Structure prediction request, 304 residues.
Amino acid sequence: MPHLAYVNGHYAPHQMASLSIEDRATQFSDGVYEVCLYLNGHGVDFTAHMDRLDRSLAALSIPAPMGRRALALVMDRLLIRNRLRTASLYLQISRGVAPRDHAFPKPAPAPSLIMTAKRFDCDALKRQQAKGIAVISTPDLRWKRCDIKSVSLLGNVLAKQAARQKGAGEGWMVDADGLITEGASSSAFIIDQAGCLRIRTLAADILPSITRRAVLDIAAQQKITIDHRAFSLDEAKSAKEAFIASTTAGVTPVISLDDQMIGHGQPGPITKAIISRHWDHMQAFFDQPARAPSASRMAQRPAR
Prediction:
């Protein structure tokens, strides 16, 4: 089974793929990323992911390394070369390679583009959704522009590690006012005692999650009352239900927070209904004709 990465116009085995030691992603976290889910060879909410990538690049004044159609073709080829149809694909774009200096280099270097892909296990996700996960609270230590999907993720790493050390599946980060912002790698939702779906309003301290948007669309279709208002740790612990949402976690129930049971300690009815509708959304991609490798596409040279 091939295990290939893409680095700046070349496909190479993972153990041979590398970036320059002076790439600004490695020295300054001066770059952005996306994680896209492919089902049966089709990108889920692909346009939304590319729109967010463009916004992140623009916020950091990093030029796109290629046009969107060319980028989509490279992503497609990476999956084909790895013989993957249902997979998660990681894409990272940095400002490029330049002698180390904090200010933007002049002249501007060519941006660096790397990609990796791995098989996505839908059955494992469904098993997790059926059980739910435990969550812990942790201080929000991130920078102030979390709306940019930057590769600067040390605060997220520390939150996730704190959760792992306590046997939890996610860490919910809490700001200086005692309000939950989001998870280390997911959006945070609760169903409060009034039956409202609570979610913090988008701002600079929140990533505009693609799955968050899908959940809100589903909730609106289901006539679920949506309250765009931050919630405290105590409100989350006393919620009827809670769940996280992300590209690779889908919609996953939260059954406890800081070892305190949420609701009845099992996935609640509103959460399960949203999960069902979200899988309907995902199934639409499975139902499209499979995109099989072709000799002509494999023979084309990668976009530069």
